[in-house]
Every structure is written in structure tokens, then in C-alpha cells.
């Protein structure tokens, strides 16, 4: 599978990673949240090549995460401002920061503290249930099929039937048929290319 194909998977994590899944993009976003806006500032802060920075900024603009806004006419110069879609990534960056504080601090403590402007307290972000507001952990969450997965399964089945293909076992949640009681299901054999 090619990296670009990840955006077509019926998985919100995969689709998100197709846009923000490399280290430079996340660091650009980190800096944007710290109110950095100009190309030269991003480059000097991160130390990446102009070509690489330009390609990452272009992709973030194309995806609607950043907006390219002119700040000078002659010569034309632009700054990069977070859109609503970009600001919606703030919890992702905060979650990464907390994980880094907990697991990558090399015993020195967090490099940054975060103050909640509303109450004035230094805080630590916590993910909570949208219904009961209790803090969440991985052992307390069960993934269930959503409408996007079901739609993808229907699309796959429709495309397969038009092509006269039977989806293979395990493809997009297709169910494996159990073997007879007391016997193991036989593994499929793949045809060898000549």
C-alpha cells in the first residue's frame, strides 16, 4: 500500500495521518499554535530546508488546515494562519505533549507548562467521556462499527459485485466462515505468478 492510499481507508486515524502523519507537519502545527505565522520563522525555528517547508505548508493549505494570508504587498509576502479545521487539531497536539511529558522527558520534567486562561491554573489536559465526563483510558473504550465503516463495506461489496469478484476473508470486516466443529479452517492458498 502506498502512503497516499492511507487517505482512502475507512479509518479516521489513517485518514488523519495521511495529512498530519509526519514529524515536520506536526512541528509546523505546534509552532502555529504558538502563534508562529511566517515562512522564515518556521524555517529558522525548525531548521528544515525551504523546499520541504514549502511542500508541508502547501499541503496544510490545500487541506484547509492553514490559510495563506498576505501581510505585505511589495514584495508579496504571506503568513500562515490556522483555520477552524486547523484549530480543531489542538487536542491532538496537547495529547502528544502530555505523552511526551510522561514518557520522553529524560527525567527533567516537562519543557512547557500550560495555563488555562479561563481559570488561571496551570493544567494538564485530560480526555473525558462526552456523556458522563469521566476521564478515559484505553481499557474503558470499546470501538464499534460506525456509519462510515458500514458505507465503505457497502461500496466495496458493490464494486466487487460489478467486477465479479468475491471479497477475500477479512477484507473490510467481512466475516470469516467458521470451519466444521472440531476442525480448523483451511488456510487459503495464493496462486503463484508465473
Name the quaternary structure: single chain
CATH homologous superfamily of one domain, by name?
Winged helix-like DNA-binding domain superfamily/Winged helix DNA-binding domain
Fold-level CATH name of one domain: Arc Repressor Mutant, subunit A
Strand order of the largest sheet: 1-2
Q: Just give the CATH class of one domain.
A: Mainly Alpha
Q: If classified by CATH, what would the architecture of one domain be?
A: Orthogonal Bundle
Q: Round the mean pLDDT to the nearest integer and report it.
A: 85
Q: What is the end-to-end distance?
A: 22 Å
Radius of gyration: 23 Å
Shape label: globular
Q: How do the SSEs run, as a string of H and E?
A: HHHHEEHHEEH
Number of strands: 4
Estimate the helix proportion, in percent: 25-40%
Low-confidence stretches: 173-194
> What fraction strand?
5-15%
For the report, how would you describe the main beta sheet? 2 strands, antiparallel
Secondary structure class reads mainly alpha
Number of helices: 7
Question: Can you describe what's shown?
Answer:
With 194 residues, the protein is mainly α. Among the domains are: 3-87, Arc Repressor Mutant, subunit A (Orthogonal Bundle), CATH 1.10.10.10; 90-139, no CATH class. It is 39% helix and 9% strand. It has seven helices and four strands; from the N terminus they run ααααββααββα. The strands form two sheets. It has a two-stranded antiparallel sheet. Strand 3 (114-115) and strand 4 (122-123) form a beta hairpin. The two termini are 22 Å apart. Residues 173-194 have low confidence and may be disordered.
